[in-house]
Each structure stands twice: as structure tokens, then as C-alpha cells.
Specification:
Helices cover 5% and strands 34% of the residues. It is mainly beta and 253 residues long. The strands form two sheets. It has a six-stranded antiparallel barrel with strand order 8-9-10-13-12-11. Strand 2 and strand 3 form a beta hairpin. The radius of gyration is 17 Å and the shape is globular. It starts with a strand and ends in a 6-residue tail after the last helix. Bound molecules: 4-(aminomethyl)benzoic acid. The site of 4-(aminomethyl)benzoic acid has 11 residues, from strand 12.
């Protein structure tokens, strides 16, 4: 996150961190959001091997503040038993259309995530529920604090962003035809804050009548905090029924 502030996982207790094991050890891969005790929503592009991804190489943490520190008091580590990548995820135009994936998580004792002050679920907006342009939302993540840095943030950070209109975001001064109806754009009016590399898969949340909803999944953008290049997010409300179908949950709001 660029231009934000230090957060605390208690402020965003649905925040998940996806790691993958490689020859070089365990590497932080993407953010995610806890939408039920057993399910984390993230981005499809976090899994370059697609449906061939080895699930036993993945692990998911919830309740985590620092990416390189263990906090046994707060964090929970979970295994991944299922991965659903959206059937129409498509990057042939370089715009990550349908950039959404679900991870089914399982604790070592065969249960799921346990709710606590640092671990809670976020609501999913209903189909095509949309907010007005200019609504203030928040993005969180462990990603870069500036575009040019090679390292990620050590700690969870947050930034306030405003929703942009589809018309502005798909204008030729912005991203043109790269923006589909499955995406939404959010930025700061002075371009000082944005998601950045490493924040992918993580949450863009907006408060509606005192409840917090996951409106976006960090997906892409040209650089970070560049003028007229806002962050692009998967529009989660379009996937309400897809999420119900894959998870078998009765409701999400
Ligand atoms: C990335 O590479 C990335 N400024 C994520 C978000 C944004 C840019 C890049 C948005 O993961």
C-alpha cells in the first residue's frame, strides 16, 4: 500500500495472507479476505499454475500483522483443501478479467478459522449492489509502500480511497477498453495513495450502514499512485452467486 498508514489486523480482521512453498522456502504470495470460517476470497492471478497449483504448497494465515514475524497469540495458520479459480478468468488482453478465486481452508485439527479479536469475517455485497461514485473505502495489504521499492511492507498497512466512475476509469485518459464491467476503480483524489505490488488478492472494503462489505479484490493497475492510473479491483458484487455456488454457503451478506 502506497501513501497509507500502519494498520492493525484488529482493524481489518478479515485480512488473510496467502503463502506458497517453493525450493527457496515459504514466500508471501498474495492477500485475501475471510468471508466465512472456511473460505478465503482472493485473486485468480495469484495462482499462475491455475488449476494445476499444488494445494499442499499453499498456506493461509489470518490474524497476522507482520509478514516475517510469528505472533502465536493472534495468528492462525491454515491449510488449503480446495482452490476454485473463476472459469472465465482471462488475461489474454492483459487486464485480468474475472480475477477471483476461492480457497477452502482447514486448521490442523480439521476445523476452520476461529473467530477472535484479530480474526473475523467480512460481508459480501449482494448482486449488482453498487455504491455511489466518491464513496470512501479502504484498501489493506502487505505490499510495496512505493512503486520503485523491491521489498514488501513488513507490516499490514491501510489507505483510504474513493470509488471512481466506470466512465472516468474507462475513458481514454485513464484505462480505456481495459476496464470491463467486472472491475471497479478506486484512487485518491491527489493520487497519493494506492494498492501496489504484493497487495493483490487483498480487500477493498466499504462501510454501509455500520457493516463492512468487501467490494473489491486488489487486481491490477499501471504502476502505483500514478496520476490517472487508479488501482483496479475485481467487482465482488458481480460474483455473489458464483461464491454461493462454489462454497455452498446459504448466504453471504
Ligand atoms: C501488482 O502488481 C499490483 N496500483 C497490484 C495493484 C496495483 C498495481 C500492481 C495497483 O500486484
Amino acid at each position: 500500500v502506497v501513501g497509507g498508514a500502519l494498520s492493525a489486523v484488529e482493524r481489518h480482521p478479515w485480512m488473510a495472507a496467502v503463502f506458497s512453498r517453493s525450493a527457496r522456502g515459504r514466500a508471501f504470495t498474495c492477500g485475501g479476505s475471510l468471508i466465512s470460517p472456511c473460505w478465503v476470497l482472493t485473486a485468480a492471478h495469484c495462482f499462475p499454475d491455475g488449476t494445476k497449483t499444488s494445494l499442499h504448497k499453499l498456506s493461509v494465515f489470518v490474524g497476522k500483522n507482520a509478514i516475517n514475524e510469528t505472533d502465536a497469540q493472534r495468528e492462525q495458520e491454515l491449510r488449503v483443501s480446495q482452490l476454485f479459480i473463476h472459469e472465465h478468468f482471462d488475461n489474454t488482453d492483459g487486464n485480468y478479467n474475472n480475477d477471483i478465486a476461492l480457497l477452502k481452508i482447514r486448521s490442523p485439527d480439521g476445523r476452520c478459522a476461529k473467530e477472535s479479536s484479530s480474526v473475523k469475517m467480512v460481508c459480501i455485497p449482494e448482486v449488482h449492489q453498487s455504491l455511489s461514485v466518491g464513496t470512501s473505502c479502504e484498501v489493506t495489504g502487505y505490499g510495496r509502500e512505493q512503486e520503485g521499492l523491491w521489498y514488501y511492507s513488513q507490516y499490514l498497512r491501510e489507505a483510504k480511497l474513493k470509488l471512481l466512475s466506470q466512465d472516468v476509469c474507462s475513458s481514454k485518459e485513464y484505462y480505456g477498453s481495459m476496464i470491463t464491467d467486472n472491475m471497479l476503480c478506486a484512487g485518491s483524489p491527489d493520487w497519493s495513495a494506492d494498492a501496489c505490488k504484493g497487495d493483490s488478492g487483498g480487500p477493498l472494503v466499504c462501510r454501509v450502514r455500520d457493516r463492512v462489505f468487501l467490494f473489491g479484490v486488489v487486481s491490477w493497475g499501471e504502476g502505483c499512485s500514478r496520476q490517472s492510473r487508479p488501482g483496479v479491483y475485481t467487482k465482488v458484487s458481480n460474483y455473489y452467486n458464483w461464491i454461493l455456488e462454489k462454497t455452498g454457503l446459504p448466504s453471504l451478506s
